[in-house]
Design a protein that fits this description.
The chain has 6 helices and 16 strands. The longest helix is centred in the first third of the chain and has 20 residues. The protein has one domain: monomeric porin ompg (Porin), CATH 2.40.160.40. The N and C termini lie far apart (68 Å). The radius of gyration is 23 Å and the shape is globular. It has 349 residues and is mainly beta.
Length: 349
């Protein structure tokens, strides 16, 4: 029996195989346009850069107009312990794609240590140790012989499909002053095996270089005056044969921020000698005393512009103190504030 002879079968089989092939062949991590709203995912060196405690949540839906969009969620919690000049955190991520229910879920433990290099410079190295599960839902796959034998495929490859579990290791650092920051992170240093066919498919190491700063326009002198400022930033990612560059600028007049970002590599050309470009990103943020809410939309400028529907992203960050900090310890270990995307009057600003 030819499984492609019937057009009805194609509607179920082809999308699943398409996304299955993408998942296996690409070997790429999911990404967030609002990467600054998920700092532990970006770089373990950011762990503990808060007044005391922080919880973050971010969700991304990519290409919603396609039959099965890519859906990515990350949640993290971290705490700064000034007695030991260290940050501790935990982060969980899940990434789902395709009609076959392909899902990758990871949980990581983060640690960072703050070193004051001078009166104006802080060095924050960090580590992350993770555990992941990768695989698909076999019940959502349909093969030709399965249609003949009551849904049970006899194909040996189908019988080998399953989930794989793996350990993961990442490291990075952040170097910052009051106005500027720069960092580098390396994820999947141990190149974990993600194959679901009992073979070997190694996840390539991902390198991230990022930086930015804060430029004050108006300090908002006066009781009711509102400061306004700019926060330019960039991020460069490279993993396997794929690389990507994001550059953008947010304008803030508290409690609102608006931003425009560009994703592309204008120094490279495609086969047709056109500039490599992927998306324009528009962001909106609301910054309150302890709560930050962000939204972004990726408008695709590539060939997928009309068909994909771009990408939507929502983020929530909540910072809080669970106990009063001991004044003596806090004064001894007070660090330079890392440039932030808001002007909340707390330990880091």
């Amino acid at each position: 029996m030819n499984i492609f002879a019937n057009s009805e079968m194609k509607k179920f089989i082809l999308p699943g195989l398409l996304f299955f092939g993408v998942a296996v062949a690409s070997g790429q991590d999911p990404q967030f346009s609002q990467y600054y709203q998920s700092p532990l995912y970006l770089n373990p060196g950011f762990t503990g850069i808060t007044n005391q405690q922080r919880a973050t949540f971010i969700h991304r839906t990519q290409w919603p107009n396609l039959p099965q969009s890519f859906s990515t969620f990350a949640a993290s919690y971290d705490i700064w312990v000034d007695e030991v000049r260290s940050g501790f955190g935990i982060i969980a991520t899940t990434d789902k794609m395709g009609t076959a229910g392909w899902r990758t879920t990871t949980v990581g433990l983060n640690y960072s240590y703050k070193v004051r290099l001078s009166e104006k410079l802080v060095f924050s190295p960090g580590l992350s140790f993770g555990y992941g599960i990768n695989g698909l839902d076999r019940s959502k796959l349909q093969f030709g012989d399965g249609l003949e034998f009551n849904g049970a495929s006899l194909d040996p490859a189908f019988q080998r499909l399953g989930n794989t579990q793996y350990f993961d290791f990442s490291a990075g650092f952040v170097l910052y002053s009051k106005a500027l920051f720069f960092g580098t992170a390396f994820s999947h240093i141990n190149n974990p095996n993600l194959s679901v066919l009992n073979t070997e498919t190694r996840l390539p190491t991902k390198m991230v270089i990022h930086g930015g700063g804060r430029i004050t326009i108006n300090r908002g002198i006066g009781k009711n005056a509102k400061p306004d400022y700019l926060t330019p930033s960039f991020i460069y990612r490279a993993q396997g044969l794929v690389s990507q560059m994001d550059v953008g600028l947010n304008y803030h007049i508290d409690p609102v921020s608006l931003g425009v970002w560009y994703r592309g590599k204008p120094w490279e050309s495609t086969v047709k000698n056109s500039i490599q470009q992927d998306a324009l990103i528009f962001t909106l943020g609301l910054y309150f005393k302890s709560l930050t809410i962000g939204y972004s939309y990726d408008f695709s400028t590539s060939g997928l512009a009309t068909a994909s529907g771009g990408a939507h992203e929502i983020s929530v960050v909540y910072e809080f103190e669970a106990k009063p900090l001991r004044r003596g310890v806090k004064r001894k270990n007070r660090l330079i504030p890392c440039p932030s995307f808001n002007s909340k009057a707390n330990f880091w600003n």
